[in-house]
Amino acid sequence: MFTESGFTVIVGAGPTGLTLARQLDRYRVPYRIVEKSPHPFEGSRGKGLQPRTLEVLDDLGLLDRFLTAGSPYPPMRAHLPGGGTRDWRLDEPHEPTAEAPWPNTLMVPQWRTGELLADGIPVEYGVGVTAVTQDSVTLDTGEVVEARWIVGADGGRSTVRKALGIGFEGETFEEERLLIADVLVTGLDREHWHVWPGADGRSMGLGLCPLPGTDRFQLTTPPTDRPLAELVADFDPSITITDVGWTTEFRANIRMVSRYRSGNVFLAGDAAHVHSPAGGQGLNTGVQDAYNLGWKLATGDDALLDTYEAERLPVAAGVLGISTRLHRRQVEEGAEAAMRRDDPALRQLPLNYRGGPLAAEHRADPGELRAGDRMPDAVLDDGRRLFDVLRGPHATLLAVGWTGGMPTLPGSVQVRHLALDTLAGVREECLLLVRPDGYVGCATTDPRHIVEYAALIKVR
């Protein structure tokens, strides 16, 4: 579909950089992806994949592997000071619908997410970046790589962001820290996420969450100098830690850039925004940054690439606000209140680009589904799902109840006629052009608008 982009260097091979590499692969855009660490990330850290991210993985052809590797979030089991227990859930399970086939958060350890995304991607591990210009990257090997586009997906301490001189505004709460470790445990069932209250009865003293596809638990506790085996034994002497693996100390760091682009250089994921882990939003937002940027890089069109910042910066700011509010609840109201995940916004399905530069809504009375919205799934007359039609690097024209003339479009555009009652949120016949990333780009009753929009997004 797209052939005009130049060579791209991706700095950072976390979930964001790897998602971008997969996007460029499907458009046959040449790239290199370098990662300063000598090996893939080894910890469980960002373990929650939200429903919208699952839809992205479906489009990339990876979802079945993730569903096999992961599991739904287990119920919580609070171990009470008096010796009893109380069970509860972060969020009540949601039943799949025609519009949202994967409505629940999937737990997958971050190292496994990276492993699945990296399969077949030529990551250059142990290769850092020392300098960045508008058309080159200097590697710590001494090699200077010329590039048309450079993407910094290199985390909260981004070398690329610092080289650009882009500020990272926000706050670091040094006193709000959390120790996280991947541990082997005996004496504890794996059907629950176990938590013990702290000394004040409100904060979390200890958490042990079973990690799917492994024999380990993710341990969380306030920072301590004591051996973790001793700490755990204080909460419950029947539990034994037999091994401590990956360990890190998290500090509350809530920051964001004021711009995603500087000339030929772009920022994505944690290089552009860092979140509290409350709400499980950071990794997911980075994956969707890459999903938005990939198809635009493939066009090589400067004006279209400007829409990356225009679309993603407001979304990231909104998501950052949600995770920050949850973090403050944890500090002010206690662990259980902050751990709730029943806000629909956390699933990221309602996030949209309405009112943005690529949302062309021409209908006088559009109904609930509008330009800029995520295209929901649907069951088609032949039994297939709409997501089956959308899957892939192409744009898709949906003629919904349409009886008029059809626009003339490039052959890469997939065309599908749908009955008027097929799509939720559409009440009158119309033409919908769905972007390569699954968002409604143009909604109209005039075929000329579709032709104009296809030219705008450089469909060929």
Strand tally is 25
* β-strand amount: 25-35%
Helical amount: 25-40%
Strands ordered across the widest β-sheet: 6-5-14-15-16-13-17-20
Tell me the distance between the termini.
6 Å
Give the number of helices: 11
Evaluate the radius of gyration: 23 Å
Task: State the secondary-structure class.
Answer: alpha/beta
Q: What's the rounded overall pLDDT mean?
A: 92
Uncertain ranges:
none
Characterize the largest beta sheet: strand count, sense, and whether it forms a barrel.
8 strands, mixed
Q: What overall form do the CA principal axes indicate?
A: globular
Short description:
This protein is of the alpha/beta class. It is 26% helix and 27% strand.
How does this structure look, described?
This protein has 460 residues and is of the alpha/beta class. It is 26% helix and 27% strand. Strands 6-5-14-15-16-13-17-20 form an eight-stranded mixed sheet. Strands 8-2-1-12-19-18 form a six-stranded mixed sheet. Strand 18 (261-262) and strand 19 form a beta hairpin. Helix 1 (15-26) packs parallel to helix 4 (110-118) and helix 1 packs parallel to helix 7 (282-299).
List keywords for this structure.
460 residues; alpha/beta; globular; 26% helix; 11 helices; 8-stranded mixed β-sheet; 6-stranded mixed β-sheet
Secondary structure blueprint with pairings:
Blueprint: E1 8-11, H1 15-26, E2 31-35, E3 48-49, H2 51-59, H3 63-69, E4 71-72, E5 76-79, E6 85-88, E7 106-107, H4 110-118, E8 123-125, E9 129-132, E10 136-139, E11 144-146, E12 149-152, H5 159-164, E13 168-186, E14 193-197, E15 204-210, E16 217-221, H6 228-235, E17 240-257, E18 261-262, E19 265-267, E20 273-274, H7 282-299, H8 302-333, H9 335-339, E21 360-361, H10 386-390, E22 396-400, E23 414-418, E24 430-434, E25 440-444, H11 447-456
Parallel strand pairs: 1-2, 1-12, 2-8, 5-14, 12-19, 21-25, 22-23
Antiparallel strand pairs: 3-7, 4-7, 5-6, 9-10, 10-11, 13-16, 13-17, 14-15, 15-16, 17-20, 18-19, 22-24, 24-25
Helix pairs in contact: 1-4, 1-7, 7-8
